[in-house]
Amino acid sequence: MKKSHEDAFSLIEDVYKEHYLYLKHFLLKIASDEKLIEDVIQEVFSKMLLNPEKILEVKYIRSWLITNTRNLLIDHFRKKKPRLLNDEEVIIDLFITDLSPEKNLLLKSSIDDILKDLSKADKTLLLAKEYYGYTYEEISVLLNIPISTIKSRIFRLKKRLISRVHRSD
Q: How far apart are CA 48 and CA 57, in angstroms?
């Protein structure tokens, strides 16, 4: 084993010991799934081990680690990213509990009309939050939108949907 290889492996071990908790706390602000966070951190360091000399070229290690962990987390969310659904039954289940078949049909028609009027971005936000159960933090990372913007847009969407459904009653 070359000297630079040994130096790189030693440096990777030192970086892991020094920055592990920092990365974990950083990721906890974005995602609440500790298992996922552990997996992301392990994947970052596993990738480092594949090309250990690369770590010797990194000037600002903390920034480099944050960028890599964030990108891996985003990749995870993208794999899990909701596809907009055309299945009316799933959309209806978002908003409906126990209704008569007639009410169900009317409501289904109303929801279809409402969803047709929404932009693709608004449908994505609504389905990500209400159907897929993403947290505001996860949606923020996934779509690169501030959490406060997501909260206000979802609130306005729900308010608009509820008022249109009640108008059709």
A: 12
Q: Which two tokens stand for residue 8?
A: 């790189």
Distance of CA 120 to the CA centre of its chain: 17
Alpha-carbon 82 to chain mean position? 10
Indicate left, alpha or beta for 111 from its phi (over 0: left) and psi (-120 to 50: alpha). Answer: alpha
Question: How far lies 162's CA from each of 70, 99, 102, 152, in Å?
Answer: 36, 16, 19, 15
In terms of Cβ atoms closer than 10 Å to its own Cβ (0-12, 13-18, 19+), residue 89 is exposed
Angstrom distance (rounded) from CA 70 to CA 46:
15
Interval 71-128: pLDDT, tens: 888 777 777 655 444 444 444 444 444 455 666 666 666 666 767 778 888 888 887 7
Q: What is the longest distance spanned by two Cα atoms in the chain?
A: 77
